[in-house]
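Protein 1 of 2
SEQ + STRUCT:
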Amino acid sequence: MELIDTHCHLDVEAFSEDRHAVLARARDNGVDGIVVPGVMACSWDALLDFCNTDACLYPALGLHPVYLDQHRDTHLAHLETLLVQHSPVAVGEIGLDYYLDGLDRERQQQLFEAQLEIARTAGLPVILHVRKAHDDVLATLRRIRVPGGICHAFNGSLQQANRYIELGFRLGFGGMLTFERSSKLRALARALPLEALVLETDAPDMTVVQHRGERNSPEYLPYCLAALAEVRGEEVTDVALQTTSNARAALGLAG
């Protein structure tokens, strides 16, 4: 089976000692593509250099709302330049985070809108980070139309999910599906059309139940696949084929 991890921070320090070994193990477990989203300007060059080391790595570049204090307006112009020079697969990880206290919502909105405009001009999809802010994100996406993308680690309602789908987005599901206590999330994954779903790990965070308390890794994506197939009552091979096709369509990845 061929799998694509649509959200994995393999460039971060947590993987500094064994990054290439992790990548090799992921490939051995059927993970043939990994999308590596950028979160702040100071990490973009190293992320691009890393992704250039292996054809299965797909970079995305963005200014993450959680790192608001690290972002400057000049980074937006730099982002536009890098999109032309390096052709990443998406603008991301971008969005709105109302979960954490102390993040200026007005500034988040300004950066989000600016990056959506950049993505629209570049004709690129976006990778969304959304916590407690789905309605505001959806309202913004209706005003600033982009070529779809992925709502990473989706945790909204069925109604909100359908609104993302109407706007051309796929929804990312990962390690939280492997926990039986995630009853709301598992019910959502069962109710949505398979054509709208993609798999992700968000490594090194949000690990699977089989490795609770450990660093998450793209090599664990098959556990996410198995959980999705289980909650939907469908064959693992069918779910793998469709979610991989969905990821390729969402991000314009070659087959």
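Protein 2 of 2
SEQ + STRUCT:
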Amino acid sequence: MRVIEAAAERGLDIDVQVFPEGTKTSADAAARAGCALSAIAKSLVFMVGDRPVLVIAPGDHRVDMGRLSGEMGGGKARRASLDECRAATGFAAGGTPAFGHATDLPVLIDVRLRQHYEVWSAAGTPTAIYPIALDDLVRASGARWVDVAVLPE
């Protein structure tokens, strides 16, 4: 798996777990991992203007477009299309990992994940996830801490 190789390049040994029944949504991933929904570190790709950005957010929150736009210095923020996601990361939506992308894109991580020592992250497919210490995820992804997530309405 490309994510295992990318982790090894960053000095990490991750234990990817495959769930044939799927981990495409945060709720699916939390159920399979047996963890709180807030401990799912979902990797979502957005476009801010014409620039892709990956946001790592807790599974029980959504990304606020206004806050994301502000963090990226302005420009209209929107969810990336499936094609834009694949072009920016090399992975399909629903399994996008936090690192090991096809292009060098900015990575942001929401402060609400700080409540967890360990989180679960996508491993590049909609059926694979792995646990990782939050500090290791931040280091491996090169993420910058931001405040962009809000509870769903």
